[in-house]
Request: fold
Amino acid sequence: MLARWLIAVVIAMLASACGAAGGTPEALKVGFIYVGPVGDYGWSYAHDQGRKYLETTFPDVKTTYVESVPEGADAERVLTQLARSGHKVIFATSYGYMDTVLKVAERFPDVVFLHCSGHKRRANMGTYFGRMYQASYLSGLIAGTMTQKKRIGYVAPIPIPEVIRITNAFVLGVRAVDPEVNVHTVWTNAWYDPATESEAANSLLDVGVDVIATQSDSPAPVQTAERRGAYGVGFNTDASKFAPTKHLTSAIWNWGPYYVEAVKQVRARTWKSTDEWWPIGTGIVGLSPLGPVVPDTLKTLVEQRTQDLIAGRFDVFWGPIKDQSGNLRIAAGEKPADEVLLGMNWFVEGVTGTLPK
Amino acid sequence: MIRRLALEKRPDPSPRLLYLLSALAIGIGLLLGAIPLWWMGTPPWEAYHEMVRGAFGSVYSLSETLVKATPLLLAGLGVGVAFRAAFWNIGAEGQLYMGAMGGTWVALTYPGLPAPLLQPLMIAAGCLAGAFWGLMPAVLRARWRVNEIITTLMCNYIAILWVDFLVYGPWKDPRAFGFPFTPPLPQTARLPSLPGSRVHLGLLLGLLVAAGLAVLLKRTRLGYEIRIIGLSPGAARYAGMNLGRTTSLVMALSGGLAALAGVCEVAGIQGQLRHGLSPGYGYTAIIVAWLARLDPWATIVVSVLLGGLLVGSDMLQIAMNLPVAGAYMLQGLILFSILGVEFLAGYRLVWRDAR
Amino acid sequence: MALVPVLLEAAVRAGTPILLAALGELLAERAGVLNLGVEGMMLVGALAGFIVSQQSGGPWIGVLAAAIAGLMLSGVHAFLSVSLRANQVGSGLALAIFGMGLSGLFGKPFVGVPAEGFAPIAVPWLAEVPLLGRMFFQHDPLVYVAYLLVPSLWVLVYRTRLGLKVRAVGEHPRSADALGISVVVVRYSCVLAGGLMAGIGGAYLSLAYTQLWVDNMTAGRGWIALAMVIFGGWDPVRTALGAYLFGGVQALQLRLQAVGVTVPTYLLMMTPYAFTILALIAASASRARWRLGPPTALGTAYTRGE
Reply:
């Protein structure tokens, strides 16, 4: 009985399996995998905005996206399925996909794989990222100027080097304006959980901060700050709608131009595997429009610093930089290589908060 | 004389009826699922075609379905045997993580061992860790009558956080730039797999375990005890069985099997212990066990089908541009239908004289 | 230090969504129906509440919509579990998955959209009480709803005839049936009420705690609510204690960080769960006169005449 049923199912499967996949042979198929849902209004949302920009810029490109793909076993299958179904360019938008992308790239040498925020490459696999820390630094300049209590709260998600680096950049910006300001950090240990992020903001406000900056995916901390009369600095996406009066700025991603450029290169067959870490001048990272409370003098300062960064006259992590314990980590005049930045696992001076062990 | 429709329990549903109804259930599920699909502008028939193709339509797809089915099978068997003894083990997820941890510990501590020695050790260590993790709630219930649904559920969170602690802390790969992974396990620790696919030893182990459990349940004294305890604890006690001891044994077995799923995921697929190792296999295993009516052989079939459903759902996103939420809805609707149709298996409508 | 008052205030705030959902589930389980789909019901409630509130400008209408959404979703479970005698574990799990999908799908246009939501209201006179006023009486209105629900449910379950009927159905449906109590009506009502409250619990997250919607924003609170029902021994007051305790530990962990205390994060995060187990053991081992076990007929379907 069981056997009969199994046979019936197998026949049904095989019958159904016959049939070719559809799709215009001409259109270039580009695939995206996201580690979270597009509806997180954060990291994956920003990537998806970039994907949509790509679609509107190149109407003959057909994009596919797969959301909430857990890193690990499932990612390998999804990447393989994308490669097998005719996608010629695939963007993997999370560090955790790295080894998986490497593995799959080996099996599909005629597909271009682009891995976000990683550091391993192959002939047909490159990496890409944006120097968000530069935008974060600029937001720190603003926060540091606007704080009156000289205490700023920072809601941080998960303690990976990227998050630590961006936090450090923010603090450096704050202390560049006022070396007496202290930044308190709280880890929520989740990429997004708006209620917990809001509670984290509350806990910071309860210790007397008057600016809340966040690196978590949702704008909840900024919203909470507005409700309690504190300034807010957002991340990933523009949080101004959630804090109309007290929003200072948000350090945001703008992946669209990069995606367009990458696809352009692939089509023109000029693409080569590199580690692309696009700086602020390219538009991949930036600040959202500054809020109404930001005075013009501050706007000018930020503009100046932005130009300095673009022109290469200055960068965030040029020494001297000390860590929390006062040790000199980056010497005066030193311009640290990207590797140092990529592996950053210490907080700069001025941070009240610990890195989970 | 007025007659009315009444429900009457079916005395002995034949296996053929059950399987027929299962097929009917899937059919209804697909029909129900067509509604949201159509509402979202996705042609349902094409969507289902893609789903089946994505799950079973090529050697690659089939292999991936089997890969997905393997942890579901192992954990499903574990959950099934516990449920048989009426011990509601919701903790398969945590037991899975403990198993993964145990196996990883052996591989990281004794990397030099040759594979034929290393892998059995890993499996043994993982299963022991899982058995212990499953034993704890059993002892708590036996000794202090603490409800096992909550203890096993809480133990899940604790186990996952414990693994997080390890991968963010002492076991973190120093070359992984601070990301929460252990170093990759040595090649000798990797379970052998079929060439050209990711199907690994774990599947074979799962099949063997299913056979073993079938024998255990039907032909051994322990199996007999388990079934009696599950059907009527009162009768079991009356017959002089030691409920506490048997239940503990069952939970050790259950935890060990879920843990085996964890070891296999690390050693067979992922190659390292990491945060988020399991996308909820332990919870899906509950659905598997229940759909299979706790029968080991049926668990094999169900885990493959459910694995296919999950793998096929990915193809829906890829081929049909369906958002992941659509896939969830579809899965939920199919499960609802199977549940609803169950009813026809257990009961039938008859005309009765109204009293 | 001023830690304790703000901590308790935060505990109440963090515990409320869990409590609202748990109270609803408690009612359903008292009638003998296990509904594991709390997470799904909270999500649809959160979304429905957000959408209606955002479109109409009124948070209370949003709460009403959330309640209805939760109720409707739980209706599916009620139909399957009560009328079709389906396995309750499976039905609940399917409901959770379905709810995730439903909310994710319909929520897409509302991601990144702000809404007015609730603002904290100070209870007149009570809010002036030193210390306690700040802790308990300056919250969003839904917190006060939860406050009122706890004793109301307690009275309902233990002191009313309706409560007696509910408990009878949950303990021994056959006897209840013989006494003329309609098992079907009682079970349906309790499951639907459970869904209603879970929906409100979800709305709290999207309208009060925060005023936004993102995918899966309940972040597992539905499962915690299920645990809290068992932790509380199916008693409304103890469930409330559990929910607030749970919220409190989470709030504590955040506040310790805010003042720079070195926190072994993961170990600290384990504490609510470990604590729950310990508390259960303590309660079971003690000679407390409380009824500790689950309703006898929890999780089993009932058919007349078998």
Observations:
- The CA atoms of residues 54 and 225 of chain C lie 27 Å apart.
